[in-house]
Design goal:
Layout: H1 3-23, H2 37-40, H3 46-54, H4 67-74, H5 97-105, H6 107-110, E1 123-124, E2 141-142, H7 144-154, H8 179-189, H9 191-194, H10 232-241, H11 257-269, H12 272-278, H13 295-305, H14 313-317, H15 328-335, H16 352-361, H17 378-391, H18 393-397
Antiparallel strand pairs: 1-2
Bound molecules: heme C (HEC) (3 copies).
Amino acid sequence: MPRHVLAISIALLACTSAALAGALTSVSLAPAGRFDPGLKAQSYDRDLAQAYVDSQCWQCHTVSTLSVELARDFGAQASGARAAGPDLAGIGGLYSDGWHAAHLWQPQDAQAGSKMPSQRSLFVLNGLALTDNGRSEKRPALKLKTQQAIAFLQSLDLPSVGRLPWPRGHRNLPESGNVKQGRDLFVQHCTGCHGERANGSSPAARFFAKPPANLAGGVMQWRTTAAPLPSYDDLFTTITNGLPGSGMPSFSAALTDRDRASLVAYIASLNRDLFDAYEPEFEKEVAGIPPALTSDLIARGKTLFGDKNFYKCADCHGADGAGGGHLQSDVISKYGFPPRDLVSERLRRGDWAGVYATLALGLQPQMVGYLKSDRSNEADLWALAAFVRSINRFEFMSRAQD
Ligand code: HEC
Ligand code: HEC
Ligand code: HEC
């Protein structure tokens, strides 16, 4: 690992420890060694790097955290010839593989106004020739080499100087937006994935294991309220923070608060009657007051995670949260993607109250909600949320308390 990267990760760890020291009295969150960023993060794999180089990405991109290795193994230019595009260091795990495929196929679908040319030579079309307008009856699939190039990008998960972390935490809608302006913004920034009718049907959608959400159907997953619809604050939060690791990007940098408020207004306008009916529910957020974060709480969460009667988390997520539970293959065959690997994947909504809300309400239909109607198990859910964050590599590497 280059020295400056090591310095960043050490500095980062120091911050984390400082934050922890404030939050917890002399508690060590991590089993020794497990979260040493040197252990797992960004292990340099020469074969994957070769695929990246063969795919010509270096013609326009740099990977600042690996410039020494790339220059050593593939020559000076491989470390970044012209840097016409952004430095890719730190991009690992931020987007799903599906996002990368959709982006290479049609960059403007994934990032509005992108100046990156599409990279269709990296796909096979199951034997069909590619027509001029890119249409084909058969699904374009990534060549093996391109899959390896993407795996290389997914390994670049050490925070880099140039890539700011996406914002996180629940947000309040700052102002009411304008529906017409929201519709224009939606066409510009969102239809590439969510489709013109906002129902999740788009050319890019075929690349995603978990497709872009249907925003017109009246049921959404990333909520803090018991209503089937997200509150306006929830929508504003998702659009602002994104859902790391899924392909749903953060729009905090690309769009102003007012623009994002207008998008909320537009999405609500697609289901005006339902939103009006549920508006009173939006006041009742599921999150109560979080207890103090202690090592006892985390230990309790660990026990509950293995509970075989009610919570049964390990059935899907595996005993240590890293996947491989006995229901995993059922989940994959039903939904097309596995239960989250809670150790190595980024959490979509990783702040403490966010994880609590996910557990309370579930991500239906893939995962049920666990909050009992008399709310008698709130304390259990805070403990489970604390445990999940303590085993997640990115949560541990980023901020401990938020
Ligand atoms: C001809 C130049 C060029 C080539 C070749 C190229 N890119 Fe890009 N790429 C760009 C530009 C320019 C952008 C920035 C798009 C924008 O915002 O206008 C970009 C953006 C990206 C992004 C988004 C980065 C971010 O920070 O959000 C990713 C990921 C990416 N490229 C991956 C790749 C991969 C993988 C390859 C090789 C298969 C590749 N690119 C080849 C020019 C290129
Ligand atoms: C590159 C593809 C992509 C783009 C562009 C994109 N989204 Fe998404 N979006 C997704 C995916 C994929 C999901 C599902 C993520 C999940 O649930 O894991 C999603 C989920 C969402 C959700 C959460 C729905 C729920 O179930 O709670 C909202 C809200 C949303 N997107 C709004 C938008 C808006 C508004 C824009 C434009 C400003 C946008 N998205 C642009 C891919 C995209
Ligand atoms: C029936 C299988 C199943 C069970 C049981 C289950 N989960 Fe999940 N869980 C999933 C699936 C599938 C996902 C991914 C859902 C998605 O992205 O739509 C998931 C996602 C998650 C996430 C990710 C949230 C994020 O922000 O990315 C967390 C945290 C989580 N589960 C924790 C738990 C805990 C704790 C328990 C036990 C109380 C549990 N799960 C029980 C299937 C399950």
